[in-house]
Amino acid sequence: MSGLYKVLYFDVDNTLVDYDADACHAFGKASDHAITKHPHLADKLTAEVFKRARESTYIQYGDIGLPLRDWYRECMRFALEALEVYDFELADQMGQLYGLFRNTMLRVYEDVLDVIPRLASRYKLGLISNGSTRIDKLQIAQYFAYSVYAREIGYEKPAPEIFLAAAKRSGCSNGEILVIGDGQYTDILGARNAKFKMVWINRLRAELMRGIPRPDYEIHDMRELLTIAPI
């Protein structure tokens, strides 16, 4: 198996870094501003409200259907309107604050810190992401030779085009690439659509959703990847 793969492409959010913690921190900063105008929201702008607003924004626009600043504004608008606050100007201000504080509290998972330098000694590593998380200032940045972001390509996972763009960028065939990600719809289904082998990093030990094909491999800690892509 050691000679099978040449490139390992990793999803970013909740695969390499704790996206949820960083995003909730940014939402907290945006919420602090909202509370100055609407004090009754103090105990209502919760992480769960934010999560539902984020999902609603994705359902309506996908990851790349709007410029990033507008995406953030719409997410804040959904959060406010869920609490019966209809204030477009406030949503825009919150979106700007959210964007300002995103990527400021990113934490690389411990298992990732352990594994990535070891894998980089044997394979080329790449990033493939629908999101806006940047790892440039993180400890693992130096180990990645390629990056493919949906907003740069014009296609988002699970569309096969973003995976095929990753293959073209690395100069490898589909069979020489292994994709690692946490997303069921985006990563598992996307890799299957593009005919790539895929490792599902399932830290939360979630059940597969209906309609999602079983991945080629499932792991619960990134260190287990070394048994699939040995060094």
TrEMBL record:
GO molecular function, one term: metal ion binding
Matches recorded under Pfam families: Hydrolase (PF00702)
Species in which this protein is naturally found: Abyssobacteria bacterium (strain SURF_5)
Keyword match Metal-binding: yes
Entry keyword annotation includes Translocase: no
Superkingdom of this protein's organism: Bacteria
Keyword field: Hydrolase, Magnesium, Metal-binding
Protein name according to UniProt: HAD family hydrolase
